[in-house]
Design a protein that fits this description.
The protein is an alpha+beta fold. It has one domain. The chain is about 20% helix and about 40% strand. The strands form two sheets. Strands 1, 2, 3, 4, 5, 6, 9 and 10 form an eight-stranded antiparallel β-sheet that branches. It has a two-stranded antiparallel sheet with strand order 7-8. Helix 1 packs antiparallel against helix 2. The longest helix is centred in the last third of the chain and has 14 residues. The chain is globular, with a radius of gyration of 13 Å.
């Protein structure tokens, strides 16, 4: 499936709107982004679904949703599913956006989920999902 990449923190990113047709291209974009301050990027699928990806060093998060803004909004659950009251922050439009730590994922798993979405347009079965 073809997806479009958008950097939701940096509107001037030359990759915004780029059509991503290959897994290797998607992985290259995600790998190149991991040294930035934590931020959100979005993959818009041609099937009417989106993947919002938080990227922050070795940690990230993923939300799967419809492109029309209607629920459900599903967050991938991390290994530590206990509600600790701690948050991760990812920038979106220069605004720090808190994400409960229970949704934190290792970046390698974030990339695996993103590749699965690029290939299929659906959420990955390799993690549990929770409606938010």
């Amino acid at each position: 499936m073809i997806v479009r990449y958008f950097d939701r923190q940096d509107e001037s990113n030359p990759l915004n709107g780029r059509i991503v047709e290959h897994d290797s291209e998607l992985l290259q974009i995600l790998d190149a982004s991991q040294n930035r301050s934590p931020f959100f990027a979005e993959l818009l699928g041609e099937n009417g679904h989106n993947l919002l990806v938080g990227i922050g060093g070795a940690t990230g998060c993923v939300q799967y949703s419809r492109d029309d803004g209607r629920p459900p909004y599903l967050m991938a659950l991390g290994r530590d599913q206990a509600s600790s009251g701690e948050y991760l922050e990812f920038l979106m439009g220069n605004t720090p956006t808190p994400v409960p730590r229970r949704y934190g994922l290792p970046l390698e798993l974030v990339k695996e989920i993103a590749v699965h979405f690029r290939q299929t347009g659906v959420r990955s079965p390799s993690v549990s999902w929770e409606e938010v």
